[in-house]
Amino acid sequence: MKRSNRLMLLLGVVLAIVAFGGVLMFGSGPSTAQxxxxxxxxxxxxxxxIPLGGQVTSDQVALVQLPLAQALDTYRDASDVVGxxxxxxxxxxxxxxxxxxAPTAAEAATQVTQSLTAGHVALAVDVDPLAMVGGLVxxxxxxxxxxxxxxxxxxxxxxxxxxxxxxxxxxxxxxxDATTFVNDxxxxxxxxxxxxxxxxxxxxxxxxxxxxxxxxxTTTPTSMAVLSLTPQQVEMVRFAQLDGHLTLVxxxxxxxxxxxxxxxxxxxxxxxxxxxxxxxxxxxxxxP
Length: 288
Fold this sequence. Notes:
Elements: H1 2-27, E1 40-46, E2 61-67, H2 105-115, E3 121-127, E4 142-149, E5 159-165, E6 171-177, E7 186-200, E8 210-211, E9 218-219, E10 223-229, H3 231-243, E11 245-250, E12 266-267, H4 268-275
């Protein structure tokens, strides 16, 4: 009886070990629970490469399913991007984001209102891309405003007393317009270190072209740069808008708080007298 009890006890221990091993073997196997599917959403992506300044057309967009975590700051409806102007190159297959585009009028209005500091007002300056560093000026940049008055504007009338001898030999002084032989082009830094609050792109679908008065080059429809100015600066810039041509030049970010620099301004006389520019000389041709 004693011997049988021992055999039964030994058999029970063996069975317990086998059962424990089975639990370990089956418990460590692959889980049969299914991973929940990743939630996706349809987003608007570029079907082709879109260059800087290009206007998005309907055949350049496509809807692609992306994981929800990758769809932040994207568009769901193609109509939200068609017609907008790219402010940076957009590669085919890339989901459109708000940072790809110049702001709409409503977005720009909110941006300007929130960005204006106390004592400043906003003024829109109508300039073409050539006068905005080739279109590289962007909201948040700091710029200087350059005024140029071209000689053909006749803004600086010049008169001269010219002696005239009559048929009877009498000499008289006649006042005449001298602008035909005087170069009265003038360039001057008007205001410095002003912030660009917004860039409103011109209508890219507009027809016709314009000629830049400063360069003579054919230009695309103009854009408007909204500047943050003091009331005194507004008076100067607004006057310059009416009687001259404006150019925006980018400042270094390191010069954001730098004091204004005194400049002399430039006319042809300064270039000749102070910088060694050779004035044009008349060419006489002997007619046989």
